[in-house]
Structures are given as structure tokens and as C-alpha cells.
Amino acid sequence: MIDNVSYTVHKICLVYIYFINVRLSCRRTGQAYLELRSTYSIWLLADTLLVDDNAYVHHYKMRDEQGQTLTPHGGIWLLELKKFNANQVETEDQRWLKFFKDGERLNDETLPDWMITQEMRQAMSTLSTFSEKDQQYYQYQARQEYLREQRTIQSELELANKREEAANKREALALAEIERLKALLAQKE
Length: 189
What we know:
Number of domains: 2
Distance between the termini: 91 Å
Helix content: 55-70%
Mean pLDDT: 79
Strand content: 5-15%
Order of helices and strands: HEEEHH
Number of strands: 3
């Protein structure tokens, strides 16, 4: 069994590896390093990752032993939503965290005061679009499942009808053979 420290280190290593992969995928062949745009990997964590730390926002950059940043080109943000419990939204970061944490429970017709910004309206519109697309997707999947079931029932009925027709044909052939044999016996008598 993995202890909490090993598990946390393992997860953070995976986050870092993902960041490096994203960073590498942002460059074009032959592009100068100075032309690279900053890359931020933002992780919205529903559960607690860093158990011994009460902070809900963690920003990581590559630094040396003296704390000098190796590169200004990006970093990793871990946002532990479970730890975020601000009742009052005081900063833009808190606004976004509250949106990520509570967004799906919000009604876009009656938004709370902390959501009344252009960016939050846009985010809510995007969330609504995703929700509508999800609903449309699930309706589509339900319709496809209904059609599959109907085709299956139809196929089973057609197969049962063919089997019944084949059985009736065999029975008719057997009865015809019996009648033929009766007629042969009657001729010999």
C-alpha cells in the first residue's frame, strides 16, 4: 500500500510530466526558444492532494537552490477546490475558484453579485453551452439506444417468423409425405 506522502509525490510527478509534455507540444520545429509562449498547466483538483497544507492555491515554477526562477515561461497551478471555502469573493482568483467549485449549481438567469462581470457572464455562457451540448448528447445517445433496441426486437421477431415459417414448411412437407405414403399403401392393397 502506498502511504500519503508517496502518493502525493507520485501525483505531483505526473502533473510535472504532463506540464513538460504540454510545454514541448507548444513549440514548432525550428522555433527559437525566445519565441516560445508561456505555458501554464492549471489543475482543478476536486479532492485534497496536499494534506498537510491548508492553502488552496499552489503555484510552482522551476527554481534553483537560491530561489531564482529558471525560466519565466509558465508554471504549474494546483487549485484544491475542496479547501476553498470563501463566503465573500474578494479577488479575481477567488471569483474563478468559486465559479469552478459552484458553477454547475448556478442559475444563469439569477447570478449572485460575485458573478456580475463580463468574464463570468462569458464563463457562464460557455458552461451553459456545454450543459446544453451534454443534454443534446445524452438525448442523442438515448435515441440511438432506443433505435438499437427497436432494431434488435425487430430482428428477433423476423428471426422467430423465419423459424416458424421453416417449421411450418417442414410440417407441411412431412404431412405431404405421410399423404403420399398413405396413397402408396392404398394402391398396394
